[in-house]
Amino acid sequence: MQSIPCQIQREVDVYVAMSRARELALAVGFTAVDRTRIEIVILELTRNLLVHAGGGTLTLTRLSDPLRGSGLAVTAVDTGPGIADVTLALQDGYSTAHTLGAGLPGVRRLMDEFSIDSTVGVGTCVRAVKWLTPPQRSVRYEY
Ligand SMILES: Nc1ncnc2c1ncn2[C@@H]1O[C@H](COP(=O)(O)OP(=O)(O)OP(=O)(O)O)[C@@H](O)[C@H]1O
Ligand SMILES: [Mg+2]
């Protein structure tokens, strides 16, 4: 599995991560729409690292799963203050920075898999995965 770690400490690092993600998403074979979704996710997670955690590491990983096929995982890890109430943080409009509060819920909607592991005083790990072929959301029976 190919993994690209990107240190996010300054504004300019966001654009470097975006460009690496764009290259990787193209190499995996994502459509233009999915590549845009992935870019938005990178933007939101890197901005959260800078605004809420004083920086961290964003890692892009190319996935290859025998059942799910090809995919891309985006992991944002920091040793910032952590999130006291993850359920609240995932609600649309919740923000401790008095901004839109659209980042985390947006990331969850744009990707196929999403998880947050956060401990107050220790840090936060957000992981989101996009598969090349989206999961079947409904079962269709053909006779
Ligand atoms: N890496 C992080 N470390 C600590 N707290 C975080 C982190 N990421 C998000 N949060 C908390 O979760 C809340 C919701 O995050 P979200 O990205 O949805 O909104 P926002 O960053 O406040 O606003 P927006 O992303 O719309 O500009 C944040 O206000 C913050 O309290
Ligand atoms: Mg945000």
Q: Could you name the CATH topology?
A: Heat Shock Protein 90
Strand content: 25-35%
Mean pLDDT: 93
* Total domain modules: 1
Q: Tell me which ligands are bound.
A: adenosine-5'-triphosphate, magnesium ion
Strand order of the largest sheet: 1-2-3-5-4
The second-level CATH architecture is: 2-Layer Sandwich
Class per helix and strand makeup: alpha+beta
Which SSEs are present, and which pair or pack?
Layout: E1 3-8, H1 11-28, H2 32-53, E2 56-65, E3 69-78, H3 86-89, H4 103-110, E4 113-119, E5 123-131
Antiparallel strand pairs: 1-2, 2-3, 3-5, 4-5
Bound molecules: adenosine-5'-triphosphate (ATP) and magnesium ion.
Characterize the structure shown.
This protein is α+β, with helices and mostly antiparallel strands and 143 residues long. It has one domain: Histidine kinase-like ATPase, C-terminal domain (Heat Shock Protein 90, 2-Layer Sandwich), CATH 3.30.565.10. Helices cover 36% and strands 29% of the residues. It has 4 helices and 5 strands, in the order βααββααββ. The protein has helices spanning 11-28, 32-53, 86-89, 103-110; strands at 3-8, 56-65, 69-78, 113-119, 123-131. A 5-stranded antiparallel beta sheet has the order 1-2-3-5-4, covered by helices on one side. Helix 2 (32-53) packs antiparallel against helix 4. The chain is globular and about 50 Å long. It starts with a strand and ends in a 12-residue tail after the last strand. The model has no long low-confidence stretch (mean pLDDT 93). Bound molecules: adenosine-5'-triphosphate and magnesium ion. The site of adenosine-5'-triphosphate has 24 residues, from helix 2 and helix 4.
